[in-house]
Specification:
The complex is a heterodimer. Chain A is of the alpha+beta class. Chain A has helices spanning 2-62, 66-89, 94-119, 126-153, 157-166, 168-189, 206-210, 223-234, 299-312, 365-370, 383-388; strands at 238-245, 254-260, 272-277, 283-288, 318-326, 329-338, 341-353, 359-363, 395-396, 401-406, 412-422, 425-432, 438-447, 450-453. In chain A, strands 1, 2, 3, 4, 5, 6, 7, 8, 9, 10, 11, 12, 13 and 14 form a 14-stranded mixed β-sheet that branches. The longest helix of chain B is centred in the N-terminal third of the chain and has 27 residues, at 2-28. Classes of the chains: A alpha+beta, B mainly alpha. Chain A: One of its GO terms (biological process) is spore germination.
C-alpha cells in the first residue's frame, strides 16, 4: 500500500503542473496578442501620419494663400509629433530610429515656425521652398520604407521576434498595467490622418445626413411596388429575401432585397443585393460580388456602358469624372451637371464588370440626398481673375471648370476648379468663384488602376 | 523498489516538461517571412508575374494578384533553381528572380509622390478585419462590417484612423483572439474595397453583434437598424 503513495502524489503534482503550465501558456498568448495589436495599430498610425505629411508638403508647393498654408502647416506639425510619439513607443532599438525621430521632431518645429511666419503674410522664399522640397523627399522615402516594413510586419513576425528577444514577461505585465491610461492617452493623441478617397466621398459623408432631400419627399411605396422596381432595374432574376428597414434620423429608409440572378440556382453563385428607398422607390444601391475572370472590354468602353445605363434608368445630365479599376471591374464616379457646372455633392457610383459590361455595383445615396435644382448665378470673379490667385509655382494647363463643392459644415461653395501640376505631381485647386479665396487643394494619386484624390 | 518508482516518476516529469516545451515552440513558429505570397497584390506581384511569364514559368494573366497560377509558377521556378519549393517569394527567391528589394531615391530634386499607392495598406488591414469578423457571412454582411469600421472613424466617440478603430482594445473579438492575423479571404478584400469606395449597406451604423454569441449586456441596449446574415447592425 505504502509503495503507491509516492507515485500517486507525483502524478497529481504532474497533472497540476501540466494544467498550470497550460494556463500560463494561454495567458501568455493572450498578452502577446494584446500587445501585438497595440504595436500594429501604432505602426499603421505612424505610416498614415507620414503619408499625410508627404501629401501636405507637396500641397504646400502649389498653395498660394495664407489661409490654406496655415492649415497645411498645422496639419504637418501635428502629424509629425504624432508620428514621433508612435515611433518612440514601438519596440525598436532606439539606436535604429534616432535619425527618424530627429527628422520628425525637426519637421514639426520647422512647420510650426513656418506657420508663425505665414500669419504675417510673408510669401515663401527660394530657400524655404528648397527646404520644403527636401523635407518632402525625405518624408516620401520614409513612407516607402515604412510600407516595405509593414508588408513584413503584416504577419506579426517582427513584433514577435522583438518581444522574445526582450523577454516577453516584463513587457506583457507592463502592457496590462498601463492599459486604462494608455487608452485615454491614445484617444487624445489621435489627430487627422487623411485617407485617399474617390473625389468628394467619405470626408463629406455627413453631408448626406443634413442635406436637402427633395428627391426623398413623396409618397411611400409598398413592398410589392418595390419588388417590381427591383425586377425592372435588374432586368430579371428571382427575389429570395426581403427586409424592410427604417433608419429614422435622416438616413434613407429602404426595402432590402436579396436577388438570385437569372440562370442561377438559389444557394449557388452570388446573390445580388439591392436596396430600394421607401419614398418614391429609387434604387439606393446594388452590390454584386460576382467573379470576373476575363477582361474583354477596355475601361473606356466600360464608361460607355455605365453612361448608357444611367441614361436608361433616368439619371440625366450625369458626367463621368474619376475612375478606379480593381478585380476585373471599373468603378466610375458620376457627378450631376447643371448648366455646365459640376455638382460634386450629387454623386453616383457605377461599377462595370470588364468581361461583359454588366453593371455590378451602383450607389446613388449621395445623389438622392443632395440633388436639387440650384440657382446658379454668374460668378463675380472671371476665370482670368481666379487664375491669378493661384501660386506662381503651380503650372496650370487647362481652362478651369465651374463647380460646386461640399464643405465639411454641410454648406456648398461655388468654385473654379483648376488642374495644376508641380514637378510631376498633380493637383486640383479650388478658387472661390465669388471671393477669389483658395478653398481647397486636392492631390491626385495616379496609379495604373485609376485616379484617387487626397 | 521505492527507488525504481522514484526514478520512473522523475523521468516522467522530465519527459513531460520536454514535451510541453516542444509544444510551446511548435505553436510559436512564425509563418515564413515571405514578402510575396498567395493573396498578395500590387505592382511587385505584377513585376513577379511579368518575369515568370517572360521566362516561361507562368502562362496566366498579368493581373497583379498572387493567385493559384502564380503560386504554381513560383514553385516551378524554385524547383528549377534549387530553392525550397514553397511558393512564397522570400529574400532568396526574390534575389534569384532579380527583383529589387529596395528602391533608391535621389536626394537632390523634388520627387513626385503621386504614385504613392498609399491605399494598399488600408485595404489589406480592413480586409483582414473583415476576414476575422465575417468570413462566413453573405457578401453584403462583409461590406457592412467594413462600413461599420469606417463609420466609426468618422464618429467623435471613436478613434479617427482605421487602425485605431480596428485595434481598439476589446472592440472586435477577432482582434482580441488573433484571428485578424489570418490571410485575408478574396471576397473580404473586395468587400474592403467596396466599403472604402463608399458602399454602406448599414446606412451609417456604428455597432454590430451576433445575437447568438453576444456576451455584453450593454450591446442589447442598441437600436437595431438592420439584420444581415448572422449579424445585427445598430447605433
Amino acid at each position: 500500500m505504502k509503495k503507491y503513495i509516492l507515485p500517486i502524489v507525483l502524478t497529481v503534482a504532474l497533472l497540476t503542473t501540466g494544467i498550470w503550465g497550460y494556463n500560463q501558456y494561454k495567458e501568455k498568448n493572450e498578452y502577446y496578442i494584446f500587445l501585438d495589436n497595440q504595436f500594429q495599430r501604432m505602426y499603421y498610425d505612424l505610416t498614415g501620419s507620414v503619408e499625410t505629411i508627404t501629401t501636405d508638403l507637396s500641397k504646400l508647393m502649389v498653395s498660394s494663400q495664407t489661409k490654406e498654408n496655415i492649415v497645411l502647416y498645422s496639419n504637418i506639425w501635428q502629424n509629425a509629433y504624432n508620428a514621433q510619439e508612435k515611433l518612440s513607443q514601438l519596440p525598436i532599438k532606439h539606436a535604429d530610429i534616432t535619425k527618424t525621430e530627429k527628422f520628425l521632431s525637426q519637421l514639426g518645429d520647422y512647420t510650426f515656425a513656418m506657420a508663425k511666419i505665414s500669419i504675417s503674410d510673408k510669401p515663401l522664399g527660394d530657400k524655404e521652398i528648397d527646404n520644403l522640397e527636401k523635407l518632402h523627399n525625405y518624408a516620401l522615402k520614409l513612407s516607402q520604407d515604412l510600407q516595405d516594413l509593414q508588408k513584413k510586419a503584416l504577419k506579426g513576425t517582427i513584433w514577435k521576434g522583438e518581444l522574445r528577444k526582450k523577454g516577453s514577461k516584463e513587457l506583457n505585465q507592463e502592457a496590462e498595467k498601463e492599459n486604462p491610461i494608455q487608452l485615454k492617452f491614445n484617444k487624445f493623441e489621435e489627430r487627422m490622418v487623411e485617407y485617399p478617397e474617390l473625389i468628394y466621398d467619405g470626408p463629406f459623408s455627413e453631408h448626406v445626413i443634413e442635406g436637402v432631400r427633395p428627391r426623398l419627399k413623396g409618397p411611400e411605396i409598398t413592398q410589392k411596388e418595390a419588388e417590381k422596381k427591383v425586377i425592372e432595374f435588374l432586368g430579371g432574376g428571382k427575389i429570395d429575401k426581403v427586409e424592410k428597414t427604417t433608419n429614422g434620423k435622416g438616413r434613407i429608409d429602404t426595402y432590402s432585397f436579396e436577388v438570385i440572378p437569372k440562370n442561377q440556382e438559389s444557394g449557388k453563385g452570388n446573390s445580388v443585393y439591392i436596396d430600394i428607398t421607401q419614398r418614391n422607390g429609387y434604387v439606393a444601391w446594388i452590390l454584386n460580388n460576382r467573379e470576373v475572370k476575363k477582361t474583354n472590354i477596355s475601361p473606356k468602353q466600360a464608361i460607355k456602358y455605365a453612361s448608357k445605363f444611367l441614361e436608361e434608368k433616368g439619371f440625366k445630365n450625369m458626367e463621368p469624372t474619376y475612375t478606379v479599376r480593381y478585380d476585373g471591374v471599373v468603378l466610375v464616379n458620376y457627378v450631376y451637371k447643371q448648366e455646365d457646372v459640376f455638382m460634386y455633392p450629387d454623386l453616383i457610383k457605377v461599377k462595370v464588370a470588364l468581361d461583359n459590361g454588366e453593371i455590378v455595383g451602383f450607389d446613388s445615396t449621395h445623389f438622392l440626398t443632395t440633388n436639387y435644382k440650384r440657382d446658379i448665378k454668374k460668378p463675380k470673379q472671371t476665370a482670368k481673375q481666379a487664375r491669378e490667385k493661384i501660386s506662381l509655382r503651380a503650372q496650370v494647363e487647362k481652362d478651369p471648370q465651374l463647380c460646386i463643392i461640399p464643405t465639411s459644415s454641410f454648406g456648398e461653395i461655388y468654385c473654379y476648379e483648376f488642374e495644376a501640376s508641380y514637378k510631376g505631381d498633380q493637383f486640383l485647386i479650388y478658387i472661390n468663384a465669388n471671393t477669389g479665396e483658395e478653398e481647397k487643394i486636392l492631390k491626385l494619386i495616379k496609379s495604373e488602376n485609376g485616379t484617387l484624390m487626397i | 523498489m521505492k527507488r525504481k518508482t522514484f526514478c520512473i516518476s522523475l523521468l516522467l516529469i522530465i519527459v513531460s516538461l520536454c514535451f510541453s516545451l516542444a509544444v510551446d515552440s511548435y505553436f510559436n513558429i512564425g509563418v515564413a517571412q515571405g514578402t510575396l505570397y498567395w493573396g498578395s497584390s500590387g505592382s511587385e506581384v505584377k513585376t513577379l508575374q511579368t518575369k515568370l511569364k517572360n521566362w516561361g514559368y507562368y502562362d496566366g494573366p498579368i493581373d497583379s494578384v498572387f493567385g493559384g497560377g502564380t503560386f504554381e509558377a513560383v514553385k516551378k521556378f524554385q524547383t528549377k533553381n534549387g530553392l525550397t519549393a514553397d511558393g512564397v517569394v522570400g529574400a532568396a527567391t526574390a534575389e534569384k528572380l532579380g527583383i529589387p528589394t529596395k528602391n533608391e531615391a535621389k536626394e537632390a530634386t523634388y520627387q513626385p509622390s503621386s504614385k504613392g499607392a498609399a491605399r494598399n495598406d488600408e485595404i489589406s488591414l480592413l480586409a483582414k478585419a473583415i476576414t476575422g469578423e465575417a468570413r462566413g457571412e453573405p457578401y453584403t454582411g462583409q461590406v457592412a462590417v467594413g462600413a461599420v469600421v469606417l463609420n466609426r472613424t468618422r464618429h467623435p466617440s471613436f478613434p479617427n484612423t482605421i487602425a485605431g478603430v480596428i485595434y481598439q482594445p476589446g472592440a472586435f473579438t477577432a482582434v482580441s483572439d488573433g484571428q485578424i492575423n489570418l490571410a485575408p479571404a478574396e471576397s473580404c478584400v473586395k468587400a474592403a474595397q467596396d466599403a472604402l469606395n463608399g458602399w454602406d449597406p448599414t446606412g451609417g451604423c456604428r455597432y454590430y453583434w451576433n445575437p447568438a454569441t453576444a456576451t455584453s449586456k450593454w450591446i442589447w441596449s442598441r437600436k437595431v437598424i438592420k439584420k444581415i446574415g448572422k449579424h445585427w447592425f445598430g447605433n
